[in-house]
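Dear colleagues,

As part of the handover before I leave the project, I'm documenting each prediction I ran so the next person doesn't have to rerun anything. This entry is a single chain, and its sequence is reproduced below.
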Amino acid sequence: MANKWVYMFSEGDMSMRNLLGGKGANLAEMTSIGLPVPQGFTITTEACTQYYEDGRKINDEIMAQAMEGVKKMEEINGKKFGDLNNPLLVSVRSGARASMPGMMDTILNLGLNDEVVAAMIAGNPDPAFERFVYDSYRRFIQMFSDVVMEVGKKYFEQLIDKMKEEKGVQFDVELTAADLKKLAEQFKAEYKNQIGKDFPSDPVEQLKLAIEAVFRSWDNPRANVYRRDNDIPYSWGTAVNVMPMVFGNLNDQSGTGVAFTRDPGTGENKLMGEFLINAQGEDVVAGVRTPMPIAQMEKEFPEAYAEFIKVCEILENHYHDMQDMEFTVENKKLYMLQCRNGKRTAQAALQIACDLVKEGHKTEQEAVAMIDPRNLDTLLHPQFDVKALKAATPLGKGLGASPGAACGKVVFTADDAEAWDAKGEKVILVRLETSPEDITGMKVAQGILTVRGGMTSHAAVVARGMGTCCVSGCGDIKMDEENKKFELGGKTFVEGDYISIDGSTGNIYEGVIPTVDAKIDGNFGTVMAWADKYRKLKVRTNADTPADAKKARELGAEGIGLCRTEHMFFEASRIAAFREMICSDTVEEREAALAKIEPMQQADFEALYEALEGCPVCIRFLDPPLHEFVPTEEADIAALAKAQNKSVEDIKSLIASLHEFNPMMGHRGCRLAVTYPEIAKMQTKAVIKAAINVKKAHPDWAVKPEIMIPLVGDVKELQFVKKVVVETADAEIAAAGSDLKYEVGTMIEIPRAALTSDEIAKNADFFCFGTNDLTQMTYGFSRDDAGKFLDAYYDTKIFENDPFAKLDQTGVGKLMKMSIELGRPANPNLHIGICGEHGGDPSSVEFCHKIGLDYVSCSPFRVPIARLAAAQAAIAEM
């Protein structure tokens, strides 16, 4: 046989994740350790890749092997697919290599048609059984229409709501067999109305269409967004799992649940989960009914519950990690449908990591390696101010599904959330329940509030993964989605009203409650200490103010990798003097204007040195083009003219002369210092005088300023500016009678600098990669305009990631590697870092470790992320 596209659960194990996907590999693993799993088969991720290569078609070989799998499944289960006497019904579910909760599609109860339904009912006269069959049938039609034929769910939901209203009932379970039979007929009519042909009755055709739909869902918009956010390559594809149905909706002796072996919100070592009697799995996850806590299952199904507790223990000991499980009880018997390492909040991840080390499940290195660095972000986010919280009265309470504090203006749709966010508004997305289509709106919202759904609903799982605050299942909300309003606690809220939600307690408040910075607890310190023990890369911060520098030091920064001096010029008291410098006609006038700024710059640098207590501080000289500093408002232009004794026209023509067609490649960086060496002189004086003063005050600190010349493309530029810096610095040091040491280095951010690094290294004490500009110039993309066309690049799969957010290791990375390989032999003392935004992106940090950088530098709140990512890179190499 040429290719094996299909594996029975008994043929695989957890090491085959890349081929069988996460779900398939874990179903095979649970089978191999003797857990109760309905026996089915997995169609491999390679078959998914083949489907796309064949122009989105399933070839005959794959389909033939799938039907062979069905035959084996019939033998194991003693039922036949499409048979009238003893029909085999199956579920078809996706399962990628990496867990993507709710991003892809599932179809249950496949194999039903009018004949099978009639035969099943004829074979069992119990009216409750008749109700179950029609319930399963209407669910299948609805899921198949939605997932396979892409008819929106809403058409069917409207029919269900209408039926419940006519019957005067609140829940689906209260509808009778006759009601559900009528619904199934209405659903088929709606299908025909939407698609233009009858609902497919041949089970084999149903199966083929369902498998195609799962493969197709790998490329749906929400899966693409999720993959981009979570670094999951498109090329991986998804597997398809086909297994016999077990029915949680068979009767009141049946049910379905989702559980975690530890609390995914806090990490506490106790079983947490939810259970619904007489329901199918999608009911729990989709949050259509708000379920009961798992502990209540013990009262309803004591034997199944006792067995489930045993299974939880077996799985934790087997996988050595917190498990997220889906299961069904049919006639009091337990079946396991899925297990995976559970998604968890950052707080829970740290707690679980520390506990697993204590319990002997993991080593320190393994514990460090199992935490997703991107998650740490949430720990550092604001919480509500305790005093303000005490004074506030909650209007209502839901489930605290994802921790954090959020306040913002109410919006009711994902599209509105995006639109308001684009205007700079902070929003809370309020929904009846979220569905995977809402992902883009959930991403931009400060918080998410849902009326339905439990701790394991789509909203809860996705919010925890994104680190977004979420309160789910607040059933007291009276929702009016159509008119964009809701009622809670006797108050009506419309779009644009402020609310605050607490994702830890589930409380909902009217108006804005002030927030405070997060407090970092012991587990964070423990894990970070382990990370620091194993990492080789140093971590610095990009900071321009003492406050930022102080925050970064608290979060573990070991120095400043980038201080952007231009940010210091924009303050009202300084911008006037700087504009005077720009308007000057002679060197003398420029020097006079710069003399006013020098003491202010010096004071800035002194404050930064004080904040860093002798850790390295790297100061980048003026980088942006001068037009960024000139006024644009008429009143400001007039004031500048008056101060300069010039006419408004003169000032306007000067401003016009500074305008550039491509300012990012224009008169900026070291080019300014070549044209106006007096700027570099003034900045050097400020840096050196500040360092001398701080060294005098703190003789025990190792104060050694690093002066960084930006945007060098030719060694002669560096030589010219460095000469100005060295002459000025040496004169200041001599005049003060000091023994201060300093370094002069350069940013490598122009491809030509990377290509000629051997020449540049002989004239530099250090290199620092400015990957924002290096990416921009390597690709020839303007960073500020690329957003307009990058979406098309994602859709056509030209790009999988934004190269400004995730370092392009193939192109830009090759330039970096080349620069290091040329630079180090030319200057063995050269130290090298990176200070673009990439310095805080985990996969980019790993790359920096591999190519032998000395440090990464990132914004203050990303420092812990970089520390953890650097440790993971070192551990992976071990």
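The mean pLDDT is 92. The first helix runs from residue 17 to 32.

All the best with the project,
I.
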